[in-house]
Design brief:
4-stranded mixed beta sheet; globular; single chain; alpha+beta
Length: about 375
Amino acid sequence: MIISGLSGNEIYCLARKGLFPAELTVGNSVRSLGFAGSLGSSLKTLAGGEIEAITRMISEGRHAAIQRMTEEAQRHGAAGVAGVTSELKTLSGYTEFISQGTAVTAPTPGRFFTTSASGTELFCHLDAGFVPIAFVMGNVAYALGIGRGLTGGLRTMAKGEVREYSEMYNRIRHLALWRMKEEAARAGANAVVDVKIEIRPFGPGVVELLMTGTASHHPRLAPGPVTPDRVVTSELTGPELWNLALMGYSPADLVMATSVYSIGLVGGIGTAFSGLARGELAELTKLIYHARENCLELVRREASALGAERVVGNKLTIRELSQGMIELIATGTALRRLEGIAPASPELIPQAIIRDDDSLTLGGG
């Protein structure tokens, strides 16, 4: 009796590539930061930026859970694990790291692999020439910091971009991306596909930026191992990657930018009084519009430096960091043309683009 997490569509798509579902596999690791680490981290938040002790603890915990999941799958004779996830839970003041996925088998197994891709996504990756190697990640645990806040706090008296914050957030995002690329390069990959970006709280005043994806090898990108700076990254979905390959486009890199803006002390007071009357807040509307344009211009410059032709799949989000302080985040995948990148199949099968509904929904918190 096999218990699999794959849907019917995923099973069908993987069978087309000679892969078949096996057991669900799980790995976990319960960790404590420790008194010394907690004290050091608390002091570090005064300066802001990365809190290295927490970054290391989270990274070690996630990798330990993945390693145990991998060992479990290999004991069952699996060829790989699909749909790999990495989560963390707080239990009685400790942190449990959990990694799980569905093992898959093959008649003639090759190199064991782990991938964050679902069965349908994996079909698209394989058909487009991206052979999975390993689930990889890059993370940074960071705090805004009181020290940095004092410097930036004076800037928030006036409206406009707070460059101290923008620069710090941009460095953090690119550091997480670089760490993911380093891990992929060590695995012998030349690409990371299906990249996911998450920003999640981790204790008082601390946030973790996590990037995960599937380190893969595509023969048209490079014949052998590459250095981290030459690892291609993409957050495109499997069908998007397949369709663009059919058009002769290859991902160049994941591009992203952050702009932190303040509405200003005076602007905040003025906006508050304006809010008493109905209608558009013209001054605030212009400020947020300018923040978006600035963020997109940063993405455009980064893509141009890569020699990319265009940026696709762009996502532009806004969130409130604190009262009167907003953060704009833009992410997308830069593309360039590449000869011989066409997929193996002339058409993408419909099962690869059908979205499976979740039959179990838990509500009520």
